[in-house]
Amino acid sequence: MSRYAHLAFTENVRRVQEERGSATAMTRLLAGDAGRADRLGADEAEFIEARDGFYLGTVSETGWPYIQFRGGPPGFVHVLDAQTLAFVDVRGNRQYITAGNIRGNDRVSLFFMDYAHRTRLKVFGRAEIRDPAEFPDLVGRSGDARTDGHAEWLLVVRVEGLAWNCPQHITPRFSESELSDALEHVYERLVRLEKENLELRSRLGAKD
Question: What is the pTM of this model?
Answer without folding.
Answer: 0.81
